[in-house]
Amino acid sequence: MKPNPCLNIKSLIGIALLGAGGTFTLTGWSQDAGDSPTITPRAMADALHMVMDSDRAVYTRRIVNRLAAKEKVITASEHFEDEKALVLPAQMFRFGAEMVAERAEANPDVNFSYSLQSIWPINKQNAPQTEAEKTGLQFVVDNKGQNYYATEELGGVNYFTAVYADTAVAPVCASCHNDHKDSPRTDFKIGDVMGGVVIRIPIE
Ligand code: HEC
Predict the structure, then answer these.
(1) CB under 6 Å to ligand 1: residues?
(2) Separation of CA 181 and ligand 1 centre (Å)
(3) Over residues 116-127, mean pLDDT
(4) How far apart are CA 38 and CA 51, in angstroms?
(5) CB burial class (10 A; 0-12, 13-18, 19+) of residue 45?
(6) Which of 26, 46, 86, 116 could form a disulfide with 76 if both were Cys (CB 3.0 to 4.6 A apart)?
(7) How many other CB atoms are found less than 10 A from the CB of residue 37?
């Protein structure tokens, strides 16, 4: 059941891109289990992060900012069902992560997980749990521009864990969090690292 430490990038990128609806091919990657080229967990995590981060930026810019901020035809709200609004980018991200978790459970060959977390979370569900998550989220706050990589053992399984900074790229990132009743921190400003994306990949 234990997956190969070097995973097949084609199937993983394919899964990651299903949500984006994009067409994407990597030539030269065989899907034959025996002789397929392999990549390191770090390269795989970096590639997955690039897809996640781009999808979130596209949703923010092309959907939320265009329709809510610019055209004002619909709002974006945490209470999107009650208010018939767009989901927030962070919620969109979490829903995707939750669907991947469900699908990965049914398919151990693509057994990885990811989440958007913070040491100052609005949603307590997004607080770090493991030592690597806690250390990594603090590291990306203290070392701007750097990612954090570690291995950790959880429940008898070894994992490669990567943490990527999530930065307040617009004033509204800071102001919405600062004004939110559940935010434990109220002095975010533009350019601050507000949290991080955690990607965890099982290794042997
Ligand atoms: C309109 C309000 C709003 C805006 C704008 C906003 N966020 Fe959030 N953010 C939230 C809410 C609400 C959550 C909790 C979502 C959930 O339920 O998982 C959240 C979650 C997060 C999290 C996960 C930790 C936590 O606080 O739960 C991070 C990190 C984060 N946002 C960063 C950002 C960044 C960076 C930006 C700008 C690019 C941004 N947010 C813009 C409201 C906002």
Answers:
(1) 78, 88, 90-91, 94, 116-118, 121-123, 126, 166-170, 172-173, 176-177, 194-195
(2) 13
(3) 98
(4) 19
(5) buried
(6) 86
(7) 12
